[in-house]
Amino acid sequence: MQEFSRLYIGGEWTVPSSDERIEVVNAFSEEVMGRVPAGGAADVDRAVAAARAAFAGWSATPLDERLGALGRIAEGIMARNDELARSVVGEVGTPSMIAPMFQTGLAAVVFGDNATLAPEIEMEATVGGTLTVKEPIGVVGAITPWNFPLVQIAVKVAPALAMGCTVIVKPSEYAPLTAFMLAEIVHEAGVPPGVFNLVSGAGPSAGEALVAHPDVDMVSFTGSTATGRRISAVAASTVKKVTLELGGKSPLIVLDGAPLADAVAAAVQGCYINCGQMCTASTRLLVPETQRDEAAAAATAIAESLAVGDPAAPDTVVGPLVNARQRDRVREYIQSGIDEGATLVTGGVEPPDGLERGYFIRPTVFADVTMDMRIAREEIFGPVLSILTYTDTDDAVRIANDTDYGLAAMVFGEPDEAMAVARRLRAGWLVVNGADQSFTAPYGGYKQSGLGKELGVAGLEEYLEQKAIHV
Ligand code: NAD
Known about the structure:
Blueprint: E1 2-3, E2 7-9, E3 12-14, E4 21-25, E5 32-37, H1 41-59, H2 63-79, H3 81-91, H4 99-117, E6 124-127, E7 130-136, E8 139-143, H5 149-162, E9 166-170, H6 177-188, E10 196-198, H7 203-212, E11 218-222, H8 225-236, E12 241-245, E13 250-254, H9 260-272, E14 282-288, H10 292-305, H11 324-339, E15 343-346, E16 364-367, H12 374-377, E17 384-390, H13 393-401, E18 408-412, H14 415-424, E19 429-432, E20 450-451, H15 456-461, E21 464-470
Parallel strand pairs: 1-5, 8-9, 8-11, 9-10, 11-12, 13-14, 13-18, 14-17, 16-17, 18-19
Antiparallel strand pairs: 2-3, 4-5, 6-7, 7-21, 12-20, 15-16
Helix pairs in contact: 1-7, 2-4, 2-6, 3-4, 4-5, 9-10
The structure holds nicotinamide-adenine-dinucleotide.
The site of nicotinamide-adenine-dinucleotide has 32 residues, from α7 and α8.
């Protein structure tokens, strides 16, 4: 049992304003594995005051000292990587095969990358006779989801601290445990009091209090598009900057002549990783009409071969979903696909054999999906792959772009042709022929997938204001 009864505010573990607690449930055993405070507006007020008080000193701290702290945080994460990963395996259900790398080790990489990139930013320049000066934006509220709980905090806290901002983190109530461990790591790293603060709590209470707070200069949010809309509306009352990393419905286009087996394998892997609870999941597989049967057979063969089960077991590829609410939502989407006339080729609403306990969903593949179906338009956030067919390349691009989202897209094909298609897609993160992805490139969605960028130099610059001094 991981119990945290205090909130990290102003460099100390402080008593929360109420005794209310949030229970963290293990996705596999369905048992309570931890408890954290259900913080509220009074706790947010204290955290914002601490962050405001620390801002003058931290923003004036030399860059290399701030980046030194980032380096120590990265080391601290790696020193506790196994323990952090175990937490995420429990609270999210991510298989232990990938958790130490993609869930927690990646957070250390993000702190390191931000420390490396920050000196590249030109903080002052002369334009005509005018001096332009970039400055930290101020106090930042960071609100994060449960699917990659530590990484999502890292991609906000690392650039904010590097640029001289102070932060209040409000982690997801479903997977808050690694945020508490990160606060311990930040403390050990010698980050001055008030620079990093942690208030756990529910979205509508602690989260919204942070967004509405007049002394918060910027909100960096990652989560669902529905919550992003609400956050934008609440933030508007105090005209603060908001960056949003939201949902997706990402296509993977297999161009005519591309190696179908490789492309389908990439689609299935990209759709089922973290049990489909990934914003960039490749959930719409677009294949030429003539390859519908072959694609469906290949996807089915892979889906049925994957080891589904206890995420702590070393060979598990697909674990449970995070909680009962999410499982029921995904089941409802699978039923809607059946009701709307898609062909269920494997998977379905029943739990996998022998896995009645734990929030499991069978790896599911639908064929004959069309863009008027909910499973093609809405983010499911579970292991459900939809296969759609197209007539020619223009049709493929049209279908791929026919979505309110624009987070990511993947293309397989002859390199020049695939590149040309990638340029035509209205999305922020493109992967051609399964290329390795760089976490120092700017990341962020088009359309209703978000506003602003994370990662890379662009991600750091989100935490800056710019003034012009005419002399
Ligand atoms: P969510 O929107 O339900 O919650 C995210 C966070 O917002 C949580 O901390 C929650 O407590 C808080 N919140 C909820 N209501 C709030 C309110 N009214 N005011 C302030 N804060 C509030 O999202 P989730 O279910 O935790 O995460 C899944 C979603 O996140 C998916 O849609 C996924 O696509 C998205 N996501 C996007 C990215 C990206 O980079 N684009 C990355 C990961 C996840």
